[in-house]
């Protein structure tokens, strides 16, 4: 009798059991959504069109692009002075400035000034704290 | 010793800054060295040993050595990316054992890295049974296996935790071929899981360590969590280097009673199996040999001074410096021994 | 005798004060966590000596767990993983101008939760540890499963919410089936060509700050950075004023959440974030007004904060009575003990009674320091809202980068994870998928897997989940109650909606 309810798990393939189970549940739920919300899904092109029409494209894509450049630049720049964290330090200043300018509405002198002050003071302070005081590795 | 690592580092880096042109010319060592380790825990033995070494190296060489516990897989990647000698790796026997056990993505350290000097040994690798276990010795366990009794051993598969288990099976095979099939693994995770496996009666024997389990062996035997040591895998030479007072209420003599030769787990007909968990350095194969040499020499000088030994001993590790060439030979021969046992067991 | 000496030692008190403050700051900065605060100060403890070193680390822990509530409430970005559930009601409160009130509620709940757990720790540590070891893989799986049922309760649309949650579990499984947790070291679900980056999977913290922090900033960018709130907005009319009467009828909630947090802390391997998730679920399912949760219900903030601070005492129970850490922060404390050559295990308390008393005292003082400083610092916290977004957001992003990069000690892929999940979070909102269940699935997925598979592997019987023990049976009662409540709630919501239209 007991054999009917016994399961044996092969340790070597046990890494697949849960992902398969979750995968099946996920597909079933996905299918249910497809059926229930088919109308909404069919008209999703409309939703995306509206999204992109109303979107502040320079700010949205600009923020994405600047962030990607920031991430890409950090490691190579940091590699020039190994393990000193200068990659983070050097790239963060222009990043904060660029993003600040992009997000700013009225680029008044006062607004730019305070933003520049933060961009020039914050990264070195943060770098000093984490790299020199807390002794953590930064890019 | 009331000076913190950080104070030292600040002092060292200030000194290094002033003496930079000189130091740079003298040794050409990078000013900032990153020591990645094969463990991602900052509470574990790997991190402790790494920080003791890093601190001594920083002080001795006037450079910054940071320990980054990124875990084995990321550590090997970081090491492979950096051939300038600014990243070095520290790990223990797990690094080649996981390759011998066929763990996915494990590099062959003897081919893909330059194995550097050994640093220290954690003598603590041990096997334990519940306090009320019928097994009084390893011999009882092997006899039980021979008699057809299943002995379940909780281990973390694929490395240091499994090697003693492999040795048990090998010993069972030597004693009565076929009986090794009665020594079965219970694959668990960290120490908490292994202890829990014992308490849940899922395992008859668990892998553990002197450091983590000693207090459980001191509990009254009616305590449901009480345990007994049954085997300590370290060599008697290593244990003899440990402080005589041992750890907690377990003296060095108590420990020796659980280790070879008092406890015999045969590896071959006339040799006992022993296992010392040794920490050692690894370098990127393209690193400038002069740089590697500089670190090896620095370690030799540090160990000659003798202060680092105290640090290791006070944390219950045994200092064990072997110069690079000797270390390579030693680890390679260890690797070969274990490879033989593992493949012998597999082939049957 | 020693205890009094500690109390009179300016170092001891000073370190607690400094540690708590630094912990609060760490917790309050998105991307920085209590664990990191403890990690960076660990080497200091060698020269401070055991008791003073522990005083520092424990106050960092208490401060760090609490500090997370500040950005959770004011910006909707949890400062630490355990304050996720604080955003659910804290942020809506702040948006409708009750930021100050929400902060005060959260702070008091935190202290209450912390003290509940300290009482438990001080009086019952050995007993609780003995009870905790009755939890095998099966019971731990059921606890996780119970926590997962909150996905249903949190969903606005049940189907989409559960789908999001299951998707979170699925994505959390990417990478290696971790050997150190009991897995076999094989990788799975890695898209072709991504092995090099993804063999360790996506790290939790970058996913979390990506999906909360980066997503929020992307959404704001999409809208063209609308003007934010000003200081005036968070202190509108008298109806939003804080008064202690809010806590009337919440005693049970405080005690229950603090106890749940403590208990989750006691179970090694269940994970710190589960504490606040479970107490939030409990509060919602037992509330008379479950429909208010997620829209700015003070009881939700109370449950979440009392729960995550309950963790602080709880996680020390297995550490000090079994030598096993209850969460990732207490795991670091083992290092502090090891540095001093002190063994932690079942004999720790009896052999080091002075240290033990000093630890508890340090945590009590730290909780009080936290209460006082946070209460008076609310004004300054609130100023965060007045910082122009063009300064605040780049700064937050920069801090998120540091947090992501340093969480695993220097892995650049963790930084990319931040961006990947920032964009993913933005897409999720567009696709009407739900972030809260997703992140809960992502947090709990790996533990759910290991305990589920190991239960079957060890016991070989799928019915073991029902028959293992009375604890298992009791957990099933909770699970069923939670599911039934969610269904009733969703029905009620639907019929309310139908009546209104």
Molecular structure report:
The complex is a heterotrimer of chains A (139), B (348) and C (501). Chain A has 139 residues and is mainly alpha-helical. Chain A has seven helices and no strands. Chain A folds into two domains: 54 residues, no CATH class; 84 residues. In chain A, helix 5 packs antiparallel against helix 6. The termini of chain A are far apart. Chain B is α/β, with parallel strands linked by helices and 348 residues long. Chain B folds into two domains: 187 residues, Bordetella uptake gene, domain 1 (D-Maltodextrin-Binding Protein, domain 2), CATH 3.40.190.150; 132 residues, D-Maltodextrin-Binding Protein, domain 2 (3-Layer(aba) Sandwich), CATH 3.40.190.10. In chain B, helix 7 packs across helix 8. In chain C, helix 7 runs antiparallel to helix 8 and helix 9 runs antiparallel to helix 23. Chains in contact: A-B, A-C, B-C. Chains A and C meet through helix 2, helix 4, helix 5, helix 6 and helix 7 of A and helix 11, strand 2, helix 13, helix 21 and helix 22 of C.
Please give a handful of descriptors for the protein shown.
heterotrimer; A: 139 residues; mainly alpha; 7 helices; 79% helix; flat; C: 501 residues; 2 strands
Identify the quaternary structure here.
heterotrimer
Low-pLDDT residue intervals, each spanning 5 or more residues of chain B:
14-26
The coarse silhouette of chain B is globular
Structural class of chain B: alpha/beta
The largest pleated sheet of chain C is described as:
2 strands, antiparallel
Q: What is the chain-wise order of helices and strands of chain B?
A: HHEHEHEHHEEHEHEHEHEHHEEEHHEH
* Strand order in space, largest sheet of chain B: 2-1-3-12-4-13
Q: Per DSSP, what share of the residues of chain B sits in E-state strands of 2 or more residues?
A: 15-25%
The percent of residues in helical segments of chain C reads: over 70%
